[in-house]
Amino acid sequence: MAKIHPTAVIEDGAQIAATAEIGPMCWVSSQAKIGENVKLLGQVTVYGNTEIGEGTIVFPGARLGCGPQDHGNEFQPEAKLIIGKRNIIRENVTMHSGTPKEHFTTVVGDDGMFMINSHIAHDCVVGNNVIMTNNAVIGGHVHLGDGVILGGNCAVHQFVHIGRKAMVGGVSGVARDIIPFGIANGMPARLRGLNVIGMKRSGIDEAAIKACTRAFMFVFKGKEGTFEERVNAAFEKYKDNEMVQEQLRFIKESLSGKRNVTVAE
Q: Annotated catalytic, 110?
């Protein structure tokens, strides 16, 4: 039997694993699925069709799976929020369910840390090992790659994509896509370079990192041709470096999706 505090409200139909713990004054909806070893520490609301993966810990005041702040789609019975395994969700975090625009689903990966007052809006796709620092917020349809770090009080505009291992500094406004391994900050955010420390910590060898740095300078700082022409040239110039190729594919996808890539100063 799950450990459920007597003041918690568990609606009929909720699926709660035997090893889960539901603290005082929590409310769990009839459609919720609470995995093994999940802990809702107290005063947590799990609304609608929300799934919380095993080992996730949710701190007081969090509101998970509430209807999106998308006018006309606040109360969709098909709406879902899927949260992965071993996440840390701190006080007053909000994560909203999806809309018909993106298959009704918001997805959060595994092993993330979502600090106080951070917000994940409707239809977002958040990767694994993501850190959102206090008061970081992402608008609807944002994609965060694995290992992304968002600094405190930063805001990411709707539909923006941020590539894996990218970092955004605190009090930044992100209105354009950020390449994998990029570092950006400012209002509006601009690329400041590459997350070299993060690359080294990921076990990427020195030669590959240096090639990424050269490619970054060629594409973002080069003077020959247009930006798109330099991107096309870099595909051939750095065809043997998979990390560079990943960045270039990201840029191509961003441009083909009619979004914009954050530029370097």
A: no
